[in-house]
Specification:
This protein is mostly helical. It is 75% helix and 0% strand. It contains 5 helices and no strands. It is flat, with a radius of gyration of 41 Å. The termini are far apart.
């Protein structure tokens, strides 16, 4: 086994602490300036997109027209916002599916959290047996349907059978053929 020698740092602990505090102060000042810059950009875009309204001295009709314009603009903005939300949701879903595919490709499948379902042993056994019985019934029904369809195809011209099937003799034949 190799024993690693503990490498002595180039800087002393006090020097490292001083450098760390300077880095933190610099990062804080950068964050403050970035926030101020974003606020300034936001105000400029708001001023550009929604100039201040001059409502003094306007008639009721002109005020109503301004309200209509504002409502139309609000509707357009809401539609754009809705479309963007839909796009974001789709992209999030796509990112999720792609990351899941990556996990699958790497072989590290992340299993979703499953909810525990309480079911009695009788219910589980019943579910198993019922599904098998219903499949068998379904197949049997298919076979009987096919046989019935074949019988229907054997129907001949009805005019030939009218006289033969009339009266009590005809009904008797129908009754016997039905059994």
């Amino acid at each position: 086994m190799h024993h690693r020698k503990k490498v002595k740092s180039k800087y002393s602990a006090t020097r490292r602490l001083l450098l760390k505090s300077k880095l933190l102060r610099k990062a804080e000042s950068l964050l403050v300036t970035e926030k101020e810059q974003k606020d300034l950009e936001r105000e400029n875009t708001l001023r550009e997109r929604a100039p201040p309204l001059n409502l003094s001295g306007l008639s009721v009709q002109e005020l109503q027209e301004i309200c209509r314009d504002l409502h139309l603009k609000i509707d357009v903005v809401d539609e754009v916002r809705y479309d963007l939300n839909i796009k974001v949701d789709r992209n999030d879903a796509e990112i999720l599916s792609l990351t899941q595919k990556i996990y699958e490709l790497k072989g590290k499948m992340k299993r979703p959290n499953l909810k525990r379902v309480k079911k009695s042993a009788d219910a589980m056994l019943g579910a198993l047996t019922d599904s098998r019985v219903s499949k068998a019934d379904f197949k049997a029904n298919l076979k009987t349907v096919k046989k019935e369809e074949e019988k229907k195809e054997e129907v001949t011209d009805w005019r030939k059978n009218v006289e033969a099937m009339s009266g009590m003799e005809g009904r008797k034949k129908l009754f016997n053929s039905g059994q």
